[in-house]
Automatic annotation (TrEMBL):
Segments forming a coiled coil: none
Signal peptide start-end: none
The Radical SAM core domain, residue ranges: 76-313
Organism, as annotated: Paraburkholderia caribensis
GO molecular function: catalytic activity; iron-sulfur cluster binding; metal ion binding
Protein name: Radical SAM protein
One Pfam family of this chain: Radical_SAM
Region entry Disordered, spans: 1-27, 360-381
Keywords: Iron, Iron-sulfur, Metal-binding
Domain of life: Bacteria
Chain intervals with Polar residues compositional bias: 372-381
PROSITE patterns (alphabetical): RADICAL_SAM
Amino acid sequence: MTDYDRDIPEFPIAPPAPRKGRGAVTNVQGRYEVDQREAVDDGWIAPSEEESGRPALRTQLFEERAKSILTHNQSPDIPFSVSLNPYRGCEHGCIYCFARPTHSYLGLSPGLDFESRIYAKVNAPELLAREMAKKSYVPEPIALGVNTDAWQPVERDLKLTRRVIQVLSEHNQAFAAITKNSLIERDIDLLAPMAAKGLMMAAITITTLDVDIARTLEPRAATPARRLRTIRALSEAGIPVGVSIAPVIPFVTEQDMERVLEACAEAGATSASYIVLRLPWEVAPLFKGWLEAHFPDRAERVMNRVRDMRGGKDYDASFSTRMKGEGLWADLLKQRFANAVRRLGLNARNHGILDMSHFKRAESPKPRTPATPDTPQLSLF
C-alpha cells in the first residue's frame, strides 16, 4: 500500500434513508442474485428524500396471466390449506411482511420493489371458475389475501378481488379474508349475504393504535382508527370479524396489545389472534434497516428480545414455534393475550367454522367461438 492509498479514507456504509410513503428503506438484493452490491456514503447522499430532492417512488402495475390460482399447503401451524392471492407484491409496504421474499423469484428486490412493482393476476376469476368446474375439485374453505393484501390500493380501480368474490358467491364457495385496508367495505354487498349463509368471515390486521408508528410500519395501509371503523362496519353488516395482531414487535408495538384488543372488542370483533414478529430470508435485513432509520435508540434492544424468542437467532422456521416464539418472553406474551381475550369475551364463539354444504359446482367453461366481423369478441377487462 502506498502513502497515497493511506490518505484515502474508506467510504462507510450508507445509512438507511427513509422514502416518503414507503416501508423499506433499501432495495436489498434478492437471495438468488449472483452479484452483491452495497451502498456506501461518499458524502453526496442526503439523509432524506426531501433533502436529496429525489422524486417520489411511483408504483408500477404489471398485468400477468397466471397458470394457476389456488395455492395448497400442509403446514400444521396454519389454519387453512388452500389460499388465493390476486396480486403479487403489496403497495401497503409493511416492513415486516413475510411475503416480501417472494419477489426474489421474479428477480426483483424484496425491498422497495416488493411495494412498488405490483403484479395483478388478471385472469384470477376465470382460473377460479375453471378450477371449481373440475370433477376432481374438492371444496374446502379458501383463505383470501393472506400472502399479499387482496384490497391493496390498486384494487380500487382494478376490482380484481371483487370479481373473485363474485365467482365465490355464485358457487357458494366458503372463504375467509384478511386485510388491513378499509376498501373491503366496498364489497359488503357481496360479503354480507355469504356471511348470512355461513360462507364467509373476515379478519382485520391491527398491529398498533399509535398512528405515528403505523405510518412508518405500514405506510400505505388504512390508519388504525380507520381499521376500527371497518371492523364496526363489517360487524354491523352481520359479517363475523376478528382482529389479527400481527406481528407483535417487542418494544415497538408489543406494549399496545391489550389496547388493540379492547378497541377491537368495543368495535364489534368477536375473535382475536396474534403472531410474533417473523423475519425469514430478506425480511431480517430489511427490518433491521427500518429499525435503524426510525428507532435507532432501541434497535439493538428490539433485536435482542426477538432473538430471545427465536432460540438466539433472528428467525426460526420450526412449525412448532415460528408463529408464537419460545422461551420466557414468548410465554409472557401468551399469558397477556389469553388474559385479555378472556376478560373481553373474545374467542368465546365458534367463529372459525364455515359451511361447505352449500357448494355448487361450476359448469365447465365452453370454448369461445372465434371472433368474426358479425360476432365481435367482447373484452373481459
